[in-house]
Specification:
19 strands; 21 helices; 6-stranded mixed beta sheet; 5-stranded mixed beta sheet; globular; Rossmann fold; single chain
Amino acid sequence: MCTVTNPLQFPYKYYQNGILIIGEITTQFGCMNDALSFSEYPRTIFPDDIVATPKSYQHILSLVFAVKEINENPKVLPNITLGFHIYDSFTDARVTQQNTLKLLSGWKRMVPNFNFDQQSKLIAVVGGIDSEISLQMATLLSNYKIPQWTWVGIVTAEDDNGETFVQTLTQILHQQGICIAFSEKTPVVSNSFQMLQSFQSIQTKASSINNSKVKVLVVNAEPQTRAWLTWYIYFHSVIEDTKEMSIGKVWIMTAQWDFSSDSMQRNFDIQVFDGALSFAIQSQEVPEFSKFLLLLNPHSEKGDDFFQIFWEKAFNCLFSYPHELSEGHNSCTGQEKLENLPGLMFEMSMTGQSYSIYNAVHAIAHALHKRFTMRPKLSRMLDRVRWRTTDFQPWQLHHVLTNFSFNNSVGDTVSFDENRELGAGFDILNWVTFPNQSFLRVKVGKMDPQALPGQEFIINEEDITWHILMLGVFIKNKDTPIVKANNQNLTYSLLIALLFCFLCSLPFIGHPQILTCYSRQIAFGIIFTVAVSCVLAKTFTVVLAFKATKPGSRMKKWVGKRLTNSILLGSSLIQVAICAVWLCTAPPFPDLDMHSLAEEIIVECNEGSVTMFYCVLGYLGFLALVNFTVAFLARKLPGSFNEAKFITFSMLVFCSVWLSFVPAYLSTKGKSMVAVEIFSILVSGAGLLGCIFFPKCYIIILKPELNSRDQIIKKH
């Protein structure tokens, strides 16, 4: 017997006893351990040397929660208790293989080909989030035919899989006529000593990412690649003395993407990724998981070596006496609230990656249950308390998982095909970020390989958050002629107003409250008036600019900021006055409508004065009509880029939406009425944004040779 003694030690695990054991190797920690030295025993690593990604701890909790659900369910594996044995890879090849051997040997000692724990049996292993880690695990687990649940695509950085990813993507892009400016590969950090050596190329890679010719970046978003990418952006901002968010790219990410930050990057500005598009594993909300998280306490979690480190790194505090604290650290009380952590550090709802682990555990349990009930002898074992681990072998699960399906605890159907691969598609998400390090996932499409021909890939462009991206593009290209044309400050004001136009739909969502009833129509009226006033000012600027070029014209004195500011302020103040009268005479209020629908009571915002609501809407329509008329008359003015024609189209869309709104609004009740107004707000805002700014962005991003003063004035 060959016992491995004194290996490089990481004394952290999470063990819960059971008859059948599910193993897991997560990747939530990293460390800067030294290179191998054969003159002394490797030292044990303690928390001070560890860099943590607190959000990844949810992957452990999802497995623990799933095991808890199954053990409490008398209909699945009765009289059999599931347990688990969890280690971390520490982003290190040696540690990953060492901990895989520990899974195979039992938790007491590590001896290859020998299991010290005769009362429990390792039945399956949930693979790592990183493809390199999963491959290192599979090298050992495949010898024992233990099912390994690798739940992310096998794509990686500077290795064979990464090369395949690049070659496949390059071929597809070339077929579509898209050129690739560069292809950067992040280091595969099999151990942390190699990380130090790879810092030499950081400056070069950081500069290439900020290449001004490149507007779209496709990222193979494995955890290590994601970490390196944030470091590249950070170092670029330091070298160039700029903010991280000034990079101004459109990001497209693979399904491993998630907003998470390690303990050294907690202040990283995630707005650099605002508007990013990513694939995501299709998932469902698991309500009981949030309740499970609320019960967690650092003083009561027994057997979990990871929990205290997670708590310290997430809340930036230490469990120690005050005199032992180092500078910059607070003392952990254990009363800190997980729900108060930013989404960058931890989320209370189950993420897509965690949902995959959750489903993996349920798949193991349901496959075992099916295996036992399909054989009379094994079925009788379920009715007995006595159980021998030698009665079942892990490889027997492979056959059961072929063409296998089940419903998990939230009713979601999970299916496996003839190759034991998960038969599910992907959601397409648009990531919207905010300055307080929070973010939203907005579903904008889906990819379903099992759908009908032509419907395998669906994306709703109008749901994508472009406005913020456009603002970034315009700020980054602020010195170019097309941005300077027609009052640059007015352009920025319009973009910001459109951003708030989209946001003003939020108060319409949820249970009516006094504050939301007061604010939602008022905010809608004033914000949209500001946006339309900006467009009106731009329209008059176009007309007066051409009139002023005529010899002897007296219009020159009207061209300038004074006129545009007067139009913007004057038009907006009239709407503010109308809204003020509304609030002072008959303000909106929460109300119960017991008459519109039989046997139903509708909780709604009563507008107070319907007349004042239509005054607000009517004034907005009047501004839009004036805008449309002036822009329509100016559409044939000379110039290679006459903005009046685009304003004409935008006002046509705007007026069409709100003319359709009135009969639709009057013919609906309750939540349908609210949905009609939200739809009108979003569509009209998107119409203004698309018609006015898409042509400019097209030239800035795809036709930069046209973004010159000569091109703009050549037809004047």
